[in-house]
Fold each of these.
Amino acid sequence: MKCDVCGKKIETTFLNKIIGTVIRDEKGKKKTVCNECQKRYTTSEIRTKL
Ligand SMILES: [Zn+2]
């Protein structure tokens, strides 16, 4: 799984949860965002980058 903002690989935990978050764009498509991008940008900033 890759971050849709920076393109880096997103690691998963042993429970198979991604280390990061999933947000939906305006079309309702799921986008994965790594922890670093989540910290660096607000959700609305991330939406403008997707
Ligand atoms: Zn990222």
Amino acid sequence: MVRPAGKQSCGRVVLVSCLALLAAGLIADFLWASSHPFSSAGMSLPSSFTTVIGKLPPNSDEKDSKKKKDNARERKLSATFQDLAAPQLQWEKMAAAPVPRLDGAAIQIRNFLYVFAGYGNINLVHSHVDIYNFVDNTWGGRFDMPREMAHSHLGMVTDGRYIYIVTGQYGPQCRGPTAKTFVLDTDTNTWSDFTPLPVPRYAPATQLWRGRLHVMGGSKENRHTPGLEHWSIAVKDGKALEKEWRSEVPIPRGGPHRACVVVDDRLFVIGGQEGDFMAKPGSPIFKCSRRMEVVFSDVYMLDEEMKWKVMPSMPKPDSHIEFAWKVVNNSIVIVGGTTEKHPETKKMVLVGEIFQFNLNTMKWYVIGKLPYRVKTTLVGYWDGQIYFTSGQRDKGPDDPAPRKVVAEMWRTKLILSP
Ligand SMILES: *[C@@H]1O[C@H](CO)[C@@H](O)[C@H](O)[C@H]1NC(C)=O
């Protein structure tokens, strides 16, 4: 008599934990969908979600759970609590890019913004370059990238003519990275191969400094684990002057999606995150699944001593800004990004401000509001105006979670703090 009862309650425990696990799994999926790049996925819950919730065993103490719920509601933070006060700016909408892009890359050379790669949607990646001309505000000059080049999470930098394109993710969803590295000569629009990185990375910080191409941080091969390694190789006119990459002083904190900027012979690494979406184990399409990331506001600087120094932090944590910056008048200007997830909903929260790091005073300022919150913007500067295009925008003024991948191009007069 004891036995069947024992068995039954054991069975119930198993059932409950199975349902709990299932629910947890679906909630994780839902979080991915809601923080997910692509509108259709983010719009509605899978019907199974509601079904399973309905099937969950009713709580024996309903009063108690009701009390808990009410408390939770009282504690509920505004979805937009991370927005900062900032001046409103006059934004002008320019010609949209030929394709929408998330996690693309961009390099400005004179009056041209070269825009590379990126996801069009989670199952489609671009493998070409589009060019915006700031003089007549038109797009054109499309040409293909090499077939072997990564399609997102690239490291990229220019010396003013040659663009170095280092490692990155190869293919859509959450596929693996490639270590393959290339050079584009923008005078002739011709590509050449370059020494592959010792191991592949996702979205490593990349810069040219003191005659060397530096690559550091990013995510390791599983897309999630932060890498601390830092390599460099001597370069000139698009060619490596050495046979191998050399190991350099590791960065204090690893991870992808940071701004890496050289000004006045100092190298800055700004913001970024630890952790990222990973491929679902066993998924034949490497389906992206959410892993909790930690976004940070840290700023590190490397000077001739080759020791990392801690600089004043950003006004708030900011990631997905690797091509979202420009240097203007000894200030680093950063447009949009992602900040820490919402503590209640755990949804990804986009950034709707422009930041300025004034290198004369070593102070940060919030210098303006964007037309919407947006991450992985591609930024240019021309004739007193700051431009941004592409990326993934928010759901609306009251919902900072990511939704639509955009092609729009916007500009406004840049007003810096002295
Ligand atoms: C940068 O400095 C120049 C020279 O002082 C000034 O004319 C220009 O307005 C400044 N640009 C911005 C965006 O502040």
